[in-house]
Amino acid sequence: MVLYDAERAMTAARAWWVLRWAGIGDVRVLDGGLDAWVKAGFETQDQAEKHEESDVILTPGQMPELDAEGALALASEGVLLDARIRPNYIGGPREGGDPKRGHIPGALSAPAPDNFTDEGPLTNGATLAEMYRGLGATGERPVGVYCGAGMSAAVTVLALASIGVEAAMYPGSWSQYVGDTGRPVTRGPFP
C-alpha cells in the first residue's frame, strides 16, 4: 500500500502510522507526495479503481506508543522529541486553544518541518541521521515523539524509521497531555 498527500506527507504519515499500528506491515509513503509524482512525469487518474474486498485482519498495537506518563518518564530515561514548531515548544501567549504553552519537561525540540527539504521530499538519510544524532536519537536509547495532536509526530516517526531508528509515538500528544492541569510543563528554549 502506498500513501500520499499533496507534498509534505503530514496526512500520509499519520495514515502510515495508524495502518502500521493496526498490523498492516507493508505500507509506504510516497516521498514528496503527489506533487513529486507529477513533477517526475508519472500519470494520474481521477477515478478510483474497483478492488476486491480484503480479508486483512487488523491487530492493534503493532507500533510502539506512549501515554502521558510514559512520555514524561521517557524524557528522563531516553530521548523524547517534541515535533511541534519551535514557538510552540518554547511557549508564550496562548494560541490555538492550547490551555498551556511550553513542552513536556526534558523533551527536546525537533520540529517536523526540519525533516523535509524546501522542495517537499524528506531530507536525505545522511542529513536526517546527523540531525537526530545531535539530539541523541540514534536508537541506542528509547526514542519517543509527540506534537500537538499526533500529525507532526507521525512525520517524525516516519523520518526516524527511514534512517533505521524506531520511535514510539504519543498519539494523544500535547493536546492530551495538557488536558490534566496537574501535569508539569516547562517553558523556554531548554528541555
Automatic annotation (TrEMBL):
UniProt keywords, alphabetically: Repeat, Transferase
A GO MF label: thiosulfate-cyanide sulfurtransferase activity
Region annotation (Disordered) ranges: 91-118
Segments forming domain Rhodanese: 2-46, 74-186
Keyword Secreted tagged: no
Domain of life: Bacteria
Pfam families: Rhodanese (PF00581)
InterPro entries: Rhodanese-like_dom (IPR001763), Rhodanese-like_dom_sf (IPR036873), TST/MPST-like (IPR045078)
Alphabetical list of PANTHER family matching this protein: SULFURTRANSFERASE, THIOSULFATE SULFERTANSFERASE
Name the record gives this protein: Rhodanese domain-containing protein
